[in-house]
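Please describe what follows:
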Amino acid sequence: MYIREYKTKNKKTKSSYGTHRLVEAYRDGSKVRQRIIMHLGTLDLPKAQLKELAYLLTCRISGQMSIIEENNELTELADSLMQHHNFKDKKREEIITEQSREDLIPVNLDTVSTAASRTLGPEIVANTMWERLGMDEILKECRFQPKQVSIAKALILGRLISPGSELKTWRWFNNTTSLTEMMDYDIKDIGKDAFYETGDLLLEHKKQIELLLSEREKIMFMLEKRVFLYDLTNTYFEGSAKNNSDAKFGVSKENRYDCPLVALAVMVDEHGFPVFSQIYPGNKSEPQTLPEVLDRLETDIKAYTGSQKPVLVMDRGIATANNIEIIRQRQYDYTLVSRKKNENKYKDDFTTVKQYMDSEDKVEIPDDWEKADKPGNVLVKKISGQDTCNLLVASSGRCMKERSMDSLKEQRFLEDISRLHASFKKGNILIPGKICERVGRIRQKYPSICKYYDIEVKLSEDQKKVAEICWDKKTSREQRNILSGCYVIETTQQHLTGPEIWEQYMLLNRVESVFKDLKSELGMRPVYHQTDKRTESHLFIGVLAYHILNVIETALKAKRDTREWKTIKEVLNTHVRNTVVMSGKDMTWHIRVSGTPESQHLEIYNALKVKDPLKRNKQNVHLRL
C-alpha cells in the first residue's frame, strides 16, 4: 500500500487543492488497478514520511507489528487516522444493522414534518393513458430522442392537467406536479426554451403523429370509423400579434372582435377522437376550408377508414351549395343542414306539428311524423327524393331557446328605437341625416330583428326636418315564430330511418364538445405567441391533449361512468405525494411517499384499472456524530 495525492479543483473559486488517500494496487486479469483503502484528508508531510505513514497504516490495518515506531508524530498521526477509520466503519455497520431490523428506529415525533408536496392523482391517470395509447412508441417512430419524448410528455400532459401556455406548463412541471418522478428521462430543471423547441418538433411531425394516433385508437377501442364530423372554430390572441400571419380580424365565435383571431378546423370521428386538424388565419371563411380538408382526407383515407369512404356530417356554416356540389363530385355520402333556407318550403308541415307540440292534450302524432328521442321533445318526418332525402325536424327545446333569444333581441331593439323616438320628441335630434344615421346603426346592431319591422323616417314639407319616426311589425314575424325550433336535414343516407338520420346529425355535438374542452379545459385561449410556428404548435399540443382526455372519458363510459375530465381532475387533485421528514437519535430520514388513496380516488382508479407507479423512497440525509 502507498499514499497518493489527488488534485481537486474548486468550481467556484477555480483554486486547486490536494487530498491524500491510502491506495492498494491489485491485478485484474492482465491489468493492474488501484483501490482506495482510506481517505486521509490533506497531509503536510514530505514524501519520505508519506512512505513511513503508509507502512504504519498498512501494519495497523493488517494487524501486524511495525518495526519502525521511532517517529512519535507519525505514530500518533497513524493512530488518529485509524481511530477515525474504525469509527466510520462502526457507524456503517450500525446503519446496516438498523436497516436489517426492518427499519424500526426510534423517532422524535416533534420532528416529523412534510415537504415537497406535489399533485399525484391526475398524473397517475394521465400517465397510464399515455402509456396505453403508446405515445412513447409513436414519438420514437417519429425519431424523437428520449429527452424529447419526455419533454413532449410534459407538454401534452401538462396541457391536460394544468392548462395554459407553454411557459405555465414549464413552471407547473418544475414546481407543482409529481410527473417529474414518472419520466424515463430526467428533465427536471431543464430550461423553458427546450419546451418551446419540442413543441416546434411536434408540429413538424404533425401529420405522422395524427396518422399513428388514429390507427392506435382504432385498435385500442376496436373502432369502426364510418362517420367523420367536420367543423371549425377560432380563438383570440392576447396582444397585437403584428408579426403573426395567422392573426387576422374576423367573425369571432366568442364575440372578441377587439382581438385578432386564429382558426382551428378539426375532423372528428363518431366516437369523438380527432382524426386530424388544420390551422388557418382568423379571417378564413369556413366554407373555403372544406376543399383543402377533403384533399387531406383523400390522401390518407386508407389509413383512416380503409377503402370505404366515410359519411361526412357538417353544420350549415360550411354547407354552402358549392361545397355540397364538391362533396357530391368526390362521391362522399353526407348529412348536413344547408345554408339554403328550406324551412319555408315545408311551412304547412311545420305548422301542423308545432300545433301538436304546443297543445296540452297530445293524443296522436301527426301523420308521417315520429319521435326521434324517448321524451318526444324532437319529432321528425322523412321526405324521400331521387338522390337525397330531407328530414324535417321540430325540436321543442330548440324552439324555446330560439324564441327566448329572439324575444331578448326584439326587446332590446324596441328599447333602442323607442329611445331614439323619445330623443326626437324632445327636440334633441331633428336633422334627417343624423336620425337616418341612428336608424342605420340600429339596423346594423339587430339585423335578425329589423328584417321583420318596417322603419320609416317621415320628413316635413320643406324636407329639412323629420316629422315622425314610425316602426311596424311585419306579418312575417309571426311566421318566424311558427318556424322556431324547425330545421331541415339533407342526407344521401336514404336507407336510414328518420330517427337514425337525426342521431347521425346530432353527432356534431361531439365536435362542439372538442371545441368546448379545447377552450375551457385545455388552455387553447388566449394565444400569446407572436409567430406562426409557435401559434400552430400551441394549438396542436391542445389537440394532442384532447386525445388523452377522450381516451380517459371513453374508458370511463365503458364502465357507465359519465363524469367528464374536469370533474375527475377535481376529485383526484386531493391525492398528493409528499416527502416525510423525521429525525431519530443519530439520523434524519427523508421518505418520499404517495398518500393513501381515499374511496373517491379508488373508485376512479379501479374503473380505469390504474395504479400508482411510484414507489416509496428512503434517504438518510444527516448523521449526528
User: Anything to note?
Assistant: The CA atoms of residues 462 and 527 lie 57 Å apart. The chain has four domains: 2-94, 107-119+575-623, 123-333+511-569, 334-491.
